[in-house]
Each structure stands twice: as C-alpha cells, then as structure tokens.
Design brief:
Layout lengths: L2 H36 L4 E11 L2 E3 L9 E2 L5 E17 L5 E11 L7 E6 L4 E9 L3 H4 L4 H5 L15 E8 L5 E8 L18 E10 L3 E8 L23 H10 L4 E7 L1
Parallel strand pairs: 1-11
Antiparallel strand pairs: 1-2, 1-6, 3-4, 4-5, 4-7, 4-8, 7-10, 8-9, 11-12
Pfam families: MbnP
Protein name: Copper-binding protein MbnP-like domain-containing protein
C-alpha cells in the first residue's frame, strides 16, 4: 500500500471513529434527559399535631389541672395523652395512591412527636389525605423497639400488639371525690386470655380532605379532646373509667366516638 492510499485510509477511519463517538455521546445525553424527565422530586411534608378542648387550646402546660368539663358534666383533668398515627396516604384525582409505610407516636405529655416530618417521592399535586388512628392489624402484629421502650405494649392476654391511645386523668365522681380514669384505646378483644378473639376492628381512618401538596408543606391536624366523651356515645366516667382494655363494648364505643375527634387545621407552604 503506497503512502497516499494509507493516508486516505487513516483519514476516513478517523472520521468514522469521530462520528461513532459523537453518536454514543448523543445517545447517553438523550438517555440522561429521559431519566431526568422521569424522576419524581423528593418533597418535604410536615404534620403538626395540635390539641383543643372544643375551641380552647390544650398544651403540655394544661395538664394535671381539673379544668375541663365533658358533655356529661364531669369536671376532669388530663395527665397523659399519647397516641399513634400511621399509614398516611395521598390519593390524587386519577386515583393514584401513595402510602407512607411509617408511624408516629404523638405524645402531648412530653411534647414529643407533635411535629412529624416525612420526605417522600410524590409529585406536587392536589391530594385527598388520610391516615390511620392506631395501627391496622398487620402493622399491629409487628415488633417495634421504640414503642416497647415507651411501654406502649398491650399484654398478650388482652390481644397483644400495641395501644392506639393512652389518655389518663382524674375526674370528680358522683361522691364529689377525685378519681382516676384510664381512657385507653386498643384492638377490641373478647375472651381475654390465651385465645382472644376480636369482634371488630377499632383502628380507623381519618380523612383530612383535599390538600394541595407542594415542597415544604405543613399540615395541621387538630384533635378535639372533648369529642372522645361526646358523640355518638355520651360518656359517663362514673361508669366507664378504668378496666376499659378488656371491655370490648367500651373499645367499640371509643372507636365510634373517635370518628369526630380529628379535623384539618391550617395548611402552610
């Protein structure tokens, strides 16, 4: 092969290599753009839990004072209030649902869990937002080290699992004496002992309504504590004050009254 032909060969070979490299580069660039287009940004959503007695705010400083009167006319105090919310779900107008498989222990007593921030990969959109009060049956069968350390367990003879809520205080009974109450919500159980059965589920879904979710959205969840004693069951603390955990009828009443306890507060972005 003479030198002129060889030079032409090398020249055309270099052109082909250059073109191939450019095509590969364009291919990677195109793929990169497609991947970026399909990525869902991580957004930050904070749930802020506030507590009220009807229209009166209730905070940690409100505890251990006989100052609240329930619908049955009983003067009472709040000494401890803590509860679990779980299974936060976002459902858009196309009925696409995004479930956050996590839980939060809200503890008014120690001012813990009153603000719960989640990082989630969902599109900014308008959603119907809901959560579970307590733990559903599948989640309630799990073992949670943090809840164990908080003594939030339910004894096996009462069905096992965990409390949905511990609400304790004192009230003035019909003898004008100060008496304690333990308004504890758990899974309703019959036949307490080695083979308990559950007459019905007592965790429940709270629907907050439609919320436009953007990055750094804060959603206020309001609990009206007075409603636990009000509707549809007018609660008589003289009759139902303690030993409510093994009382499935009382647990179902708590479940029924809980339907009107939570509401949506302010949404800020």
């Amino acid at each position: 092969m003479n030198s002129t032909i060889f030079k032409h060969y090398v020249y055309f070979f270099n052109i082909k290599i250059t073109a191939l490299v450019l095509l590969i580069g364009l291919g990677f660039s195109s793929c990169s753009e497609d991947l970026d287009d399909n990525l869902t940004p991580t957004i930050q959503i904070t749930f802020k839990f506030t507590h009220h007695w009807d229209n009166e705010p209730v905070t940690n400083s409100s505890l251990n004072i006989l100052q609240f009167t329930n619908a049955n006319g009983e003067l009472l105090s709040i000494e401890r209030l803590r509860y679990i919310i779980s299974g936060i779900r976002f459902t858009n107008s196309a009925n696409e649902s995004f479930l956050l498989d996590s839980y939060n222990l809200v503890d008014l007593t120690s001012n813990k869990g009153l603000s719960y921030t989640v990082q989630t990969e969902i599109p900014e959109d308008t959603y119907s937002v809901s959560f579970t009060f307590g733990l559903n049956n599948e989640d309630n069968s799990e073992n949670y080290v943090d809840l164990n350390s908080e003594s939030f367990n339910v004894p096996d003879m009462m069905g096992g699992g965990y409390h949905y809520m511990q609400f304790d205080g004192k009230f003035i009974n019909t003898n004008s004496e100060e008496q304690g109450f333990n308004y504890h919500a758990i899974r309703a159980v019959d036949n307490a002992g080695t083979d308990p059965t559950s007459p019905q589920d007592t965790f429940f879904t709270v629907n907050l309504g439609t919320i436009t979710v953007l990055n750094r959205t804060e959603i206020e969840v309001k609990m009206n504590i007075a409603e636990w004693f009000t509707n549809p069951n007018l609660w008589d603390l003289n009759e139902f004050n303690q030993m409510l955990m093994p009382n499935s009828a009382a647990q179902i009443m708590i479940y029924e009254n809980g339907q009107s306890v939570f509401s949506l507060g302010e949404v800020t972005q």
